[in-house]
Amino acid sequence: xxxxxxxxxxxxxxxxxxxxxxxxxxxxxxxxxxxxxxxxxxxxxxxxxxxxxxxxxxxxxxxxxxxxxxxxxxxxxxxxxxxxxxxxxxxxxxxxxxxxxxxxxxxxxxxxxxxxxxxxxxxxxxxxxxxxxxxxxxxxxxxxxxxxxxxxxxxxxxxxxxxxxxxxxxxxxxxxxxxxxxxxxxxxxxxxxxxxxxxxxxxxxxxxxxxxxxx
Length: 215
Fold this sequence. Notes:
The protein has seven helices and eleven strands. With 215 residues, it is of the alpha/beta class. It starts with 5 loop residues before the first helix and ends in a 7-residue tail after the last helix.
């Protein structure tokens, strides 16, 4: 596995996400999130799975970050649902077991929230595809901790870089890393003419105050 510079990797991942429209930027025609926020950006990193070259680059990048920041874990845990496929690929790359964490325990059968074989005391790295506020990611972290696992940290493809997410992870005492982020995305989007300089101003204002941006 050939290590590449963090900035080069982050810019390349951002370029890929824009190329395949896994991330769409529409400041003039914003999206509406489930929270009700109007947003100039929409992210669906599941699209990366449809492109073998990009899928491979992201899988290898996840593995590089994990080994560099956390060391080889005993297992990888994907967060349902976006982190399941990515997590399984990363576990295969690292040659370790894979488990995944549901948003809540099943209402039937064994009532599992964590699916797969694991043991208390195992060192786990959690895989997500996207971090917004960090809420769902940290629910999975807490479920693993309650099951007796040692969560070394979490890695995602992309983060919006919201202050609330950083604070939530800090409060939960959980380290996290991302393959790329909003700042790298803006750099690549401007460079490859996905946005204009005027768009960039609007996009930066949204990141500073997303709940009031549309006003």
